[in-house]
Amino acid sequence: MTNIVTKLFNIEYPIIQGGMVWVSGWKLASAVSNAGGLGLIGAGSMYPDVLRKHIQKCKEATDKPFGVNVPMLYPDIQKLMDIIIEEGVKIVFTSAGNPKTWTSFLKEKGITVVHVVSSVKFALKAAAAGVDAVVCEGFEAGGHNGREETTTFTLIPMVKAAIKIPVIAAGGIGTGRGMLAAMVLGADGVQIGSRFAATEESSAHQNFKNKIIEVKDGDTHLTLKELAPVRLIKNKFYNELQELYLQNPSKEDLKNLLGRARAKKGMLEGDLENGELEIGQIAGIINEIKPAKEILDEIIKEFLEVKSLIYRF
C-alpha cells in the first residue's frame, strides 16, 4: 500500500501510532514500526534521560522508521530536542503549541516534522510554518484536544481543502472501516492512539488497559478546557472535577485539584479512582487487549476487504 504518507515516512502502511503520554514507550513504538506502521515514542511524560533510553532501545528493537511526539507544553523542551538531534531521530510530531517555534530548527537538521492541529486555522499556520504534514485531530480523541469540539469527519475535508501538504486524520479511528472512511473524506493516512493503548506492548498499567476495554459510549468526556482540553474516563477524580465546576472555579482552582502527576497516577500507576484516565471515544468498541502487530494486521485486512467490497458497485 503506497501513497504520499508511506513515501513521506518510508513505511508500509499509512498508519501512525499516537505518541501518548505514559503509554507510548519504545516497546509499543518498535512493535508498530516492525508491523509496517510508524511508531511514535511519547516524550511528553519522559524526563530527558528517560527519552534518550527509549530512543536507544527503540533503535535496538527495530530497523524501521519511528518518531518522537513532543508536546510543546513540555517545560524544558530544549533538552528533549537536543536529545532527538543527538540520537539521530528522523521524524518528530509536535503538538499543543505554535509550530513556528521548532519546525525550522528541526527541518534544518534533516528531520521530517508533523504538527497536530484541531482546526483549519491551525492547519494553515502549521503549513505556513513549513511542516511536512499535519495530523487533524477531532474532539473524539483522547488526551489533549481542541476546544472547538470539531469532529474528525467534519475536520478532515475542511483541512484537506485548505492546505496542500499531507493530511493525517486522528480521533475516533481504530478499525479498518474507520481508516477507509477517513481516507474517503480526504485523509492521506490515519493516526491511531486509543486502540494501541490497549496492547500488550503499551506501557500503561494493566488496570488502565482493563478499564479501556470496559468503556462504553458516554463513559468519557472532554473537560479542563481552561487549562488544556483532555478527554477523560468518568471516575472519582472526574466527578470531583465536575463538582468543582459547579462552583465557577478559577484556573488556579482547577490546577489545585489537578495537582501534579495526576495522569501518571492513573495511566502508569493504575489508580482508577484518583488518577486522570485519558482515552478516546473509540474505546467503546475496544474489547480485547492484543499485540500491536495483530491490531495493525486486522486494521489493514478490514480496510482492504471493505474497500474492495465498496468499489465493486
- Coarse morphology: globular
The CATH first-level class of the largest domain comes to: Alpha Beta
Distance from first to last alpha carbon: 22 Å
Mean pLDDT: 95
Structurally, how many domains make up the residues? 2
CATH topology of the largest domain: TIM Barrel
SS-derived structural category: alpha/beta
**Range of helix content:** 40-55%
* CA-atom Rg in angstroms: 18 Å
> What is the strand arrangement across the widest sheet?
1-9-8-6-5-4-3-2
DSSP strand count: 11
Largest sheet: 8 strands, parallel
Low-confidence stretches: none
Percentage beta strand:
15-25%
What is the architecture of the largest domain at the second tier of CATH? Alpha-Beta Barrel
Q: Can you say what the CATH homologous superfamily of the largest domain is?
A: Aldolase class I
Instruction: Quickly count the helices.
Output: 14
Task: Give the SSE string.
Answer: HEHEHEHEHEHEEHEHEHHEEHHHH
Please characterize this protein's 3D structure:
The model has no long low-confidence stretch (mean pLDDT 95). This protein is an alpha/beta fold and 313 residues long. The longest helix has 19 residues. Helices cover 42% and strands 15% of the residues. The chain has an eight-stranded parallel sheet with strand order 1-9-8-6-5-4-3-2. A three-stranded antiparallel sheet has the order 7-11-10, with no helix packed on it. The chain is built from 14 helices and eleven strands. It has two domains: 227 residues, TIM Barrel (Alpha-Beta Barrel); 77 residues, no CATH class.
